[in-house]
Amino acid sequence: MKITDLKCAIIGKTPVVRINTDEGIFGYGQAEWAKPYLKPFVLFYKPMLIGEDPTNVEGVMRKIRRLGSFKPYGAAVSAIEVALWDIAGKAANLPIYKLLGGKVRDRVLVYNGGIRFPLEGEDSPENFAKNTLRMKELDEGFSIIKQGIAVHGEFASNFKDYFYGDLYWDDNNTIVYDDDSQKPWALSQYIPNGAQITEKGFNYTIDCIRAMKEVLGDEVGLALDLGPGIFPSDALKIAKAVEDLNIMWLEDMITGDYTPYVLADLYRDVTENTSTPIHTGEQIYLRHNFKDLIDKRAVNVVGPDPLDVGGIAETKWIAEYADMNGIMIAPHGTIDGLIGLAAHVQLAATLPKNYIAFEYSVPCHKWWYEIIDGLPNPIVKNSYIDVWDTPGLGISFNDGAKKYLKEEDKDFFD
What we know:
Number of helices: 14
Distance between the termini: 18 Å
Shape: globular
Number of strands: 18
Strand order of the largest sheet: 5-10-11-12-13-14
CATH superfamily of the largest domain: Enolase-like C-terminal domain
Strand content: 15-25%
Largest sheet: 6 strands, parallel
Radius of gyration: 21 Å
Number of domains: 2
CATH class of the largest domain: Alpha Beta
CATH architecture of the largest domain: Alpha-Beta Barrel
Oligomer: single chain
């Protein structure tokens, strides 16, 4: 079997990869749906793939892996890797998890960081509690919920004098526009121009955390995302202040989205001085860049994203190494879409006992659920997804997908 073509189409705003072969078998992958600008980066690898045997996944990856980088550019490599596994599974008439050594669980736990709702009314601990309660009451019955605090989202920007210093708008990050709006969409829109959180900003943060945890009780775990991170001294103060709440983890306290470095020593300084679990990893590319975090026990939980770290196998290697070092794994995946969701399920079925849950992946538009076949219905039951046995990723596009192709991509499914 030989690769004959590599294609990338933007469906909605999601970069979708298709690899064709001379035997008529094809495979799909995708990047996060906030990255439509990645199309040329995906197609850059086309000359390196043509003529290769896609079922030799590692052999192909050795040609292209070294040319990726930290988020977002590792996403192109990762999407290709997922598509290769899809082909390999279809060729063997086996689900991907069988090719990874087999499953160790029949259903996989997921947590909710993606099905969120706009805050009703002014930002306040009471309204954050109401918002969290709404997430708790979702039909999926998620057993862990993740909310953003500090510089994640608009938490800090909506609170007057949150930092000693101004917050400024990061124009370089306003790179994605909604299809039906001229409003830019970005993961980290505001950046602090001052090192320290004010006392009232700190107290407000803790009040919000306590209010959210109170409505969840001991029935649902609360994880908190601080990416793209705050100064280490404030990170430690927050972690210490919530030790009595049994928080699942504090995520990306020092680094985060689009940070092209690791800073393991700074994370270790926080982790060693608190009982609150510390988590990071979504922006990191390749297992080699997790080694320092794991060797130094710099965090309690690693969170690689299979669609950014280098793919399915890369994430499994990280999970195994973390397990040997007593570190848990909760893979990132908020906006990995439905192809990403399928990849997560196949991967999570094989991960060792250090697996907590992966972040439930949602698409950019609800109509994605109408154009993808093969997912369970309902997808999530009591916070779990049943692992399916269909070959490859186990999902496919139906004919309804064609109407969402742009003119330049009209031959994508050929």
